[in-house]
Every structure is written in C-alpha cells, then in structure tokens.
Amino acid sequence: MSYELKIHAAELVANARRLIEEIDAVDAIKLLGSPGTLFVDLRDVRERQKLGYIPGSFHCPRGMAEFWVDPESPYYKDIFGQDLKFVFYCGSGWRSSLTLETLQKMGFENAAHVTDGFTSWVKAGGAVEKAKSTAAQGS
C-alpha cells in the first residue's frame, strides 16, 4: 500500500515546538534537585533500563500521559495534581514535544520539555541514574 501523508512526523514536532516551553539540556541540568521541579520521563521502560534516567525522575510512559494527568480519568496519578514545574523528556525531544502540546491543549500548565531529550542531557554532562538489574543472581 502506498500513500502520501498530509503532514510528516517532523512537521508535527516543529509545529508543537512553536507552542510549548523548551528548556535546553544545560538549563535543565541546573533545575535538577530544585524544589518544586519534577522531571517526567516519557520513554519506554526498556529505554530507562538500558540507558538510565535523570535522577529522581518520575516515569510516565508516553501512551499514558494524557490519562495520568486527567483527574477525571480512572488512570489519574496524584503526582500530576501537585504544585510543581513538570519537565518532560524523551530520547530526542520529539515525543516530549508532542506530549506537551497535547497536555497544554487539555489545560495542563506549568510544564516544559528538554529540547533535545535525554540524549542532549547526557551530552551536556547531566547526572544519570542506572536502573538496578532485576536479573536473577548467578545466571
């Protein structure tokens, strides 16, 4: 099956980035440990396990974000009702930009994203916490 898309993923991301708050990795690193700031990792659990994550970040899988921030959703997570600055990130900033644009449309405020994601965080020298192995000992 061959088809022509009306808009490509890169265009969706570019459009979203014009509407949301972006924080580059260097500035995001300065926010680590700040009271009132919570980093939210949208990556797949396997990415967190393999590559590590920003220390103290809250894991919210990309596919659940809209449901976890919505107080009327049966999946709502209380953490998103707290008076915090939420800084979302993914691997390269594409998923987080689309997520943040959607959350803003929903009315979720006081949020930003790391412009080029976890990759830029690591390049800029940001702290990385590694997941503890869950593999059986002695294997």
Biggest sheet features = 5 strands, parallel
Superfamily (CATH H level) name: Rhodanese-like domain
Mean pLDDT reading: 94
Global shape: globular
Q: Report the CATH C-level class.
A: Alpha Beta
Radius of gyration: 16 Å
Unreliable stretches covering 5 or more consecutive residues: 134-139
Kindly state the percentage of residues in helix: 25-40%
What separation lies between the terminal Cα atoms? 46 Å
Order of helices and strands: HEHEHEHEHEH
CATH topology: Oxidized Rhodanese, domain 1
Number of helices: 6
Strand order of the largest sheet: 1-5-4-2-3
CATH architecture: 3-Layer(aba) Sandwich
Q: How many strands in all?
A: 5
Report the sheet-strand fraction. 5-15%
Query: Into how many domains do the coordinates divide?
Result: 1
Give the class from helix and strand content and strand pairing.
alpha/beta
Structure in words:
- The protein is globular.
- It has 139 residues and is of the alpha/beta class.
- It is built from six helices and five strands.
- Strands 1-5-4-2-3 form a five-stranded parallel sheet.
- Helix content is 35%, strand content 13%.
- The protein has one domain: Oxidized Rhodanese, domain 1 (3-Layer(aba) Sandwich), CATH 3.40.250.
- α1 packs across α5 (94-106) and α2 (25-31) crosses α6 (117-123).
- It has helices at residues 9-17, 25-31, 45-51, 65-69, 94-106, 117-123; strands at 22-23, 37-41, 58-59, 85-89, 111-114.
- β2 (37-41), α3 and β3 form a beta-alpha-beta unit.
- The model is unreliable at 134-139 (pLDDT under 50).
